[in-house]
Amino acid sequence: MLMQTWSFFKKSLANNIFRGLELREFSVFYQPKMDMETRKIKGLEALARWHSPGIGWIPPSEFIPIAESTGAIIDLGEWVLFSACEQMKHWRENGFSEISVSVNLSPTQLEEKNLISSVEDILAKTGVEPRLLELEITESVFIKDSSRALAVIKELKKLGVRLAIDDFGTGYSSVGYLTAFPFDCLKIDQSFSRTIQLPQTQVVIRALTSLSRQLGLTTVLEGVESETEMVMAGHLGCDQIQGYAVGRPMQANAVTLKMRDFQMNSATLPLLE
Fold first, then answer.
1. Confidence of residue 145 (pLDDT cuts 50, 70, 90)
2. Are 39 and 110 in contact (CB under 8 A)?
3. What three-state secondary structure class fits 72?
4. β-pairing verdict for 162-168 and 185-188
């Protein structure tokens, strides 16, 4: 009975995701990444948010796994990618021509046969320079079929976009991924931020940043929430940080105001609230 109830809930929520897309219940929030050397915003990560009139805000932790398991993530992911590129186009038209945005690609999306043509079409329609779009891929995609994943990632790379391996350090992390796949960025999982004051954690972070530098990869430490964690991330060689210490996910208009404030004052962008 419980299995039937769970199955019904999943199917119902998946159907509501499609309905929510049609009714424009979804929005894209952007979380900034800060460059450790300049203390300026280096880029933004696009994140899906869902506000249902009858329920309220539905956490991504609830709807993303169901969207992934039911295939609804294909439509949702494509919508997020298009929305993010449209916003990049808007920012470019308003003087922010070098702002880059990263978008997550799920394992299901990577298996979608039309993924490459879809990304190519969105770039063409929005006029976004491929170099300003970064696609984030979790290492879990390599466990199922690494040869298939490699082929898809190589095709994406041919489009000129940047590629990042996300949440590195969890599950079956392997430094072999960093040499076998054409990544540009390594995002270190937020679990390392939580324990960054431990000597053993510092050894791992320093090793990852050192290796990444030798491979020509940019390193981003995720989940940085305090000034102490931020300072230590810099000492350990992280190129960029992301987390509440820099800024929470926010709507595009709030990001625009922050960037405009920086542009007008010609000063290093302050930490975001």
1. low
2. no
3. coil
4. parallel
pLDDT at res. 262 = 55
Domain boundaries, the chain: 2-265
pTM: 0.90
pLDDT of 1 strictly over 50: no
d(C-alpha 183, C-alpha 156), whole Å: 11
Instruction: Name the one residue in this structure whose structure tokens are 């109830």.
Output: 5
Q: Match 């994140």 to its residue by tokens.
A: 47
Q: Side chain identity at 36, as an amino acid letter?
A: M
**Residue 252 to residue 32: CA distance in whole angstroms:** 11
pLDDT of residue 267: 41
Three-state SS at 178: helix
**Was domain 2-265 assigned CATH 3.20.20.450?**
yes
How many Å apart are CA 48 and CA 80, to the nearest integer? Answer: 7
What are the φ and ψ backbone dihedral angles of 168, each rounded to 5 degrees? Answer: -65, 140
Residue 152's H or E segment, with its range, is helix 141-158
What amino acid occupies position 243?
G
Between residues 260 and 262, which one has the greater pLDDT? Answer: 260
Residue 152's CB is within 10 A of a number of other CB atoms, namely: 20
**Amino acid identity at 115:** L
Secondary structure element (H or E) that encloses residue 44, with its range: strand 41-52
d(CA 110, CA 137): 9
∠ CA 157-125-129 to the nearest 5 degrees? 45
Q: CB–CB of 30/255 below 8 Å?
A: yes
